[in-house]
């Protein structure tokens, strides 16, 4: 982790492309007018460079709408980031979904737990998230349609699982990210993610342990 902490710095602009072998795609969710406005607000506040302010719920806006719009954005970001290293993340190079030597993740579909390689895990994860986003009863896309009572619980599970992709990229593929000169892009995305989940308590702090030192460094720099 020391190498990661020492390499938090600005790099050249980066435009990653999804590997052709990747089966999941970035989500193009149909947005209503209100959600489009929220997305524009998020984009404009991110452009200010103040990530702490960017994650805050806009005045007079619905909390669930704000979380939903941002989850779609974080899903797309993690798809893109994983796509940059997917050719290096194979069943041979990553036979387990790990985040360093101490942490290994198993996929669970609610009925059984599956031991699988990192690319298989990510495919299961992204497919599952897409299914949640496509489910109108969980993520309504129409104005006035209520969110379910368990929406925050679903949101927490999504964000907990998306964190694991960041953890895998940092702990297992950081050298390749450095070669691509994509460190700034990854750090900014992850810092935004951490501030957002912290603002709305979407991840149990214990789940962040694989990257806690990095989180302390990134968030402490705000």
TrEMBL record:
Keyword Metal-binding among record annotations? yes
User: Could you say which residues bind Zn(2+) here?
Assistant: 89, 94, 168, 173
> By its UniProt entry, which SUPFAM superfamilies does this protein fall under?
Mob1/phocein (SSF101152)
Q: Name one Pfam family in it.
A: Mob1_phocein
InterPro entries documented for this protein: MOB_kinase_act_fam, MOB_kinase_act_sf
- What domain of life is recorded for the organism? Eukaryota
Keywords assigned by UniProt?
Answer: Metal-binding, Zinc
* Family matches, as PANTHER family: MPS ONE BINDER KINASE ACTIVATOR-LIKE MOB (PTHR22599)
Protein name, as recorded: Mob1/phocein family protein
- This chain's source organism reads Steinernema hermaphroditum
């Amino acid at each position: 982790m020391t190498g990661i902490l020492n390499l938090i710095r600005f790099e050249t602009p980066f435009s990653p492309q999804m590997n052709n072998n990747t089966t999941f795609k970035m989500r193009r969710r149909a947005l209503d007018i209100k959600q489009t406005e929220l997305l524009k607000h998020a984009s404009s506040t991110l452009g200010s460079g103040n990530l702490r302010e960017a994650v805050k719920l806009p005045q007079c806006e619905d909390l669930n709408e704000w979380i939903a719009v941002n989850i779609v954005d974080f899903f797309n970001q993690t798809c893109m980031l994983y796509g940059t290293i997917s050719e290096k993340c194979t069943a041979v190079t990553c036979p387990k979904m790990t985040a360093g030597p101490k942490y290994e993740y198993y996929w669970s579909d609610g009925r059984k737990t599956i031991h699988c390689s990192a690319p298989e895990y990510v495919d299961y994860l992204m497919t599952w998230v897409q299914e949640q986003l496509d489910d109108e009863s969980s993520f309504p896309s129409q104005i006035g349609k209520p969110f379910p009572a368990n929406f925050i619980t679903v949101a927490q599970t999504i964000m907990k699982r998306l964190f694991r992709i960041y953890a895998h990229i940092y702990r297992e593929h950081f050298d390749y990210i450095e070669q691509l000169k994509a460190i700034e892009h990854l750090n900014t995305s992850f810092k935004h993610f951490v501030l957002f989940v912290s603002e709305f308590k979407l991840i149990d702090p214990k789940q962040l342990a694989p990257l806690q030192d990095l989180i302390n460094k990134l968030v402490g720099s705000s």
